[in-house]
Amino acid sequence: MKKRSKRYRSLLKAETKGKKLSTKEILELVKKSSNLKFDESVDVSLKMNLKQSKGGDFSLRTVVKLPNGSGKKEKVAVLCEPEKIEEAKKSGAEVFGSDDLIEKISAGKINFTKLICTPSMMGKIGKHGKVLGPKGLMPNPKLGTVSNDISKAVKDFKTGLVEIRNDKDGNLASTIGRKSYTSEKLLENYNYFIESIKKERPDTIKGEFIKNTFISSTMGISFKVGAK
C-alpha cells in the first residue's frame, strides 16, 4: 500500500472543515487515512467530566464487551489451584500455573497481557500488587479477572472484553476495532462503547459526562465527533 505524504494527510483533514460529519463518515475517513501496511487499531478517546458535586473526583474503571470484538490479541495467564490447571490448559490461556506462576511473577517474569485468578489464589497474589498494579495486571472481581469459571473468563478477554479506566487528567481511551473492520462493525462497537460509558455516570456528576470525543487510528488522523 502506498504511504501517503504529510501534505496528503493535511489535505484530508482539511476536507472536514466546515462540515458536520456523522460518526459513520468519520470512521470511513479514519479507515481512509490509515495507510500503513499493518492493520491499525481504531481508537476512541474521551475527555471526561469526573468532577462530582461531593466526594471528590469520580474514578471510572470498568469493562466493556464489544459486540464485534476489539481485534486486540491478548496473551492470557491463569493463576489457579493445582487441581484446576487442566481446565486452564483447555481454556485457551497461553500461560497457567499455581505457586510456580507466582514465583515467576515474583521474579519479574511477566510474559502475558492479562492475568485471571481464581478467588482462592487472591490471598497469595495480593502481596505482588505493587508489581502487577502499575502494569494494570492486578486481578479485580469488578473487571472479570477474578473468577472460578476459568473458561468463560478467558473466552471473554479473547473475544472482545476490554478494560477501560481514566487517567489523572480525566481522559479515557479504548480500541474499538481494526481498520480491516467494516464501517458498520466499527460503528456498532463505537455506539455500544459510548452507551456503556454513559451508564457508568454517577448521579453526583453535574453537566455533560462526556465532554469531547475523538476517533483515530494508530498512526492516522484524529477526528472530533460532532465537530463542524
Can you offer a commentary on this structure?
29% of the residues lie in helices and 21% in strands. With 228 residues, the chain is an alpha/beta fold. It has two domains: 20-70 and 161-224, Ribulose 1,5 Bisphosphate Carboxylase/Oxygenase (2-Layer Sandwich), CATH 3.30.190.20; 76-158, 3-Layer(aba) Sandwich (Rossmann fold), CATH 3.40.50.790. Strand 8 and strand 9 (223-224) form a beta hairpin. The longest helix has 16 residues, at 183-198. The model has no long low-confidence stretch (mean pLDDT 87).
* Beta-strand percentage range: 15-25%
Mean pLDDT equals 87
- H and E order: HHEEEHEHEHHHEEHEE
Q: Label the overall shape.
A: globular
Number of domains: 2
Global structural class: alpha/beta
Low-confidence stretches: none
Gyration radius, in Å:
20 Å
In the CATH hierarchy, what is the class of the largest domain?
A: Alpha Beta
How many β-strand runs? 9
Which bin fits the share of residues in helices? 25-40%
End-to-end CA span: 31 Å
Largest sheet: 4 strands, antiparallel
CATH architecture group name of the largest domain: 2-Layer Sandwich
Number of helical segments with 4 or more residues: 8
Helix-strand layout with pairing:
Blueprint: H1 6-14, H2 23-33, E1 41-48, E2 61-65, E3 76-79, H3 85-90, E4 95-97, H4 99-106, E5 114-117, H5 122-125, H6 129-132, H7 150-158, E6 161-165, E7 171-178, H8 183-198, E8 210-217, E9 223-224
Parallel strand pairs: 3-4, 3-5
Antiparallel strand pairs: 1-7, 1-8, 2-6, 8-9
